[in-house]
């Protein structure tokens, strides 16, 4: 199976360092010097980690210094400077960094080279910038372990390095193997390390195949294979066995993965210490081989995924049948190394097979494919693939033997292309005789065939859709235009019907009119208060680059002259030409240069039967898109709807002003002057026309305390206003006689029970505050609890409980006492704050507490305003209920 050059380069880059490290150990085993091996390790470490300089230092026990035995550097002068240099074994990280700075390299990383818990040297890495990543540090540790193996294998020399026992070499070799190589090289490394550590004449690694028969996976040294010894040892499930000519060590358990066989002329029973080392080495060797096997399978799976992605990606990107099939043929030929293959498709309306894409085929090979299709429909129905190893001798292909001879087809593997149960074609590979597909290759092509069938069907459907789409396109354009017009008219009607805001109605009018008629600009003018001029109230310009120039013209006042009034008397649109524009003057006069260059402008009255409420100015600057009669009639229809909406909005604003005036007349106009306290309040009405039920008031008690009441009356309108007035009277009349919250609410409840209707009630919050001590007394009758905000922003809740006023006589109420520190604030509010809604979500107490914690240090008025403004932002503009907020700060 082949890999494309880019993938091969990527894979090679990932394994170069490990190959070089393993090569360094092989040099040592083959008699190379220590310095040669360490030089190879330094070079591999620099390449793997991206270091600009790599140094392997070896400890000189006589002097206690670390001497540079190997240097890898891009600069020969740096290499010459470092080679043979010495540093103290006690040097710390600061000394390492200082060495890097002297070389002009700001990043340094150091690892000890350790054998048997004894430091033999250090590996040092340097580069200019960017810390070494975790992956690079792991590779550096592998290099340090390889250096340890090299030093351990050298034995005693002039540098004072002592020879280490074979068990240490086995341990270090096991660590090195954990990095993994490919399957064959891993097995060879296991054999080499085991032979070197034990002094065996030869070593072989056996691996169990799918039938659990041992097969040689790698060997080193003199011939060491003796299958009988291995089979007997594995059958006996012996972890270790001594035979007349070898040691056999089992690799892995339950079930074993294989065995390591070490060949000796005269094998002896190893000591317990050596046996323990071999057992540990065997476990690591089995792990390394399994890791290599997993890596190989993952590579195969990756190739399969890449092939599938290539085919499916081509199908999605092109939705072209030809491109999809050519991509599939190229990928399969590359992955299998196949020279002769083809994709055949059955014509949808005919039972005829045609070659759709192929490679390396000539002659009547389609007849062979037809025979394979017949088998897929008959005796081999339901199978994912048809395997014919010898085409000439297979009786199933007897009807096409002449064609086989003429085409030179020796073997065939056919993969039916099915979508659900429907057979739509065939993918056929014609390998040479004796070439069989491996299980991985077979699984890959089977998966590709399944995806290819879906891609072919999708491409066919796409081409059919394209054909039908072309037939409908002309009619669809007209339908889309009609649909767009209807949608725009509906949007205009819906906006006008839902909005009672004059500004919102005007903005919607100019925007939707410009979009509906595809105009460069649309503006609406309305008479000023004296009725002497038309003033632009809203303007929409399609291209922002023209906005400045258009605004300068259309925002200029237009005198409402008798001549202009007469032109609108009939309620018909007025086309402006240069003569009429000059005659009318004002803003229209400024349009003369545009009109002379071919622009078109029309004025459409927005009028009720009784009066002209305003005018729409329609502007098309492109001479190729003049305003036509049909567009003016459509604009007149829109203007008629707009007139009703504007009249409703105007009436709504008048009634809203009246309701707000009545509401505010019941709220306090001045604050009591109390030293040490700062008061603030904000009331915002909702979009309703009726008078709301929120009421609040302040009173200075005879003992100097501040009394505050905040209530919410059920209902709206005149009845609510009357109940608000009663609630305010109750507060004013009872607060001095019953100043404490529990007494006040009990007395107020008795009054309200006798005054309000049986189905109505009043929620009320009453509290007193001593400005000198900060003492707070609070009582609550079914009202949202107040918040106490400390100087540092901590928010607490005064949770006094009680039934709303007017429901049941003879009620008693809780009284909660707290202290308001200097710099702190009390915040009272109605339920319109926490119950403000947006798309079914409420503002809520958590959001309120978060705001108070962030804004608690503001002055009282600004704090109350911040709460209401945050509610308005949350709802997206209009409040869903009246909101009243009272803030009291102790200074």
Query: In what order do the strands lie side by side in the largest sheet?
Result: 18-17-16-21-20-19
Total helical elements:
25
Biggest sheet architecture: 6 strands, antiparallel
Structural class: alpha+beta
How far do the termini sit from each other?
A: 83 Å
Low-confidence stretches: 155-165
Multimerization state: single chain
> Can you give the helix content as a percent range?
40-55%
Count of beta strands: 33
In terms of topology, how is this protein built?
Layout: H1 5-29, H2 34-49, E1 53-60, E2 65-73, H3 76-82, E3 86-88, H4 93-102, E4 107-115, E5 118-127, H5 134-154, H6 166-177, H7 183-198, E6 202-208, E7 214-221, H8 227-235, E8 240-242, E9 246-251, E10 258-263, H9 272-318, H10 321-336, E11 341-346, E12 353-359, H11 365-377, E13 386-388, H12 401-407, E14 412-419, E15 422-429, H13 439-498, H14 502-517, E16 521-527, E17 533-541, H15 547-554, E18 558-559, H16 562-567, E19 574-576, H17 578-584, H18 586-589, H19 592-596, E20 600-607, E21 612-620, H20 629-665, E22 677-684, E23 694-700, E24 706-713, H21 718-734, H22 741-755, E25 762-769, E26 775-781, E27 787-789, E28 795-797, E29 816-819, E30 825-829, H23 831-834, E31 837-838, E32 841-842, H24 844-855, H25 860-875, E33 883-890
Antiparallel strand pairs: 1-2, 1-5, 2-3, 4-5, 6-7, 6-10, 8-9, 9-10, 11-12, 11-15, 13-14, 14-15, 16-17, 16-21, 17-18, 19-20, 20-21, 22-33, 23-24, 24-25, 25-26, 26-29, 27-28, 27-30, 30-33, 31-32
Helix pairs in contact: 1-2, 1-5, 2-5, 5-6, 6-7, 6-9, 7-9, 9-10, 9-13, 10-13, 13-14, 13-20, 14-20, 21-22, 24-25
